[in-house]
Amino acid sequence: MHFDLIQSLSLAGKPDVPNDDRVGSADRHAWVIDGATDLGAPGLLGERGGAAWLSATAQRAFSAASGPLRQVCESVFVAIAQAYQQDRQREPLATWELPRAAFAAVALEGDELVCAHLADCVVLHRSASGIHFLTPEPDREAERAEAAALGPGTGAHGVRTPAVLADRRVARERPRAVLGIDAELSREGTLYSRASVSLGDDVLLMSDGFAALFDTYRAYDPAGFIERLLAHGLDDLARTREIGNLTKNLEPQLAVEVRRLEAEGIQPDPATALSPRQRLSPGHQLAPTALPAHPLGHHQQFDEHPPPTQPGVEATDDFIQVGVT
After folding, report:
1. pLDDT by residue (tens digit) across 296-308?
2. Parent domain of 28
3. Residue 52 counted as domain residue
4. What's the CA gap between 269 and 184, in Å, rounded?
């Protein structure tokens, strides 16, 4: 058995900011990397920000690796640690400046599908026996509470108040199981699971942004998500993700109207939807080029992105589907 790439998507949060996420696949393994938003200016690793550096380094390592998944992950951890020692320009200002990411990866090993993950990327497996998470089921309740406690602070285009930035830096100083520049810590934090696999199965790997369709927006359960994906494709789900972002910025009655239009198969115009003083026009169609750059961000469970209640965060969403053939 091997993997065939079916479709993939990486949505940048802003057109003028490097994408710090990656997805990819090889004959027998696939992966998603969700870089943690930088909390300071570039410099530690030269002109490139730490998140973009880490995702690019991990992407190269995953692409070059082969073998059982533990071996693949080990080679990635070591490659990142070695590259950091080579590329580092100075000592980090503090722990918060060290690059880190969430990741998930899968590999075919005999008649089993093996999954590895760190932090909050999500993997779904569709087989003849049903649809199952290979990673923990998404849950945003804890991060919602923390975001509410932080209060306002992140404005348009990712601008953060000093208080929110300071809070993010303090949070990043706390120990976390993440993909980073310490190979031993990455190794210790990575969790593995196994499932039976057969020809015709599908495996979906995604960042927590796409996983928000399950929990934050409650747009689909896993079965509904895959049904929509197979029927309408990934582009359709990407538009659903953006509309989910938009409705959280609207007055309650307008958000209900957006949902009603979606249920009728009508994609509302984001420019209209963003204005609480205007009514939605059922005649408008939402083209992919019309999508705004993530008017609402998401706050990862390991405290890497600003709160989900704040607009304008330069968050990114990533997804890859591979088929077992």
Report:
1. 233 333 444 433 3
2. 3-216+313-324
3. yes
4. 48
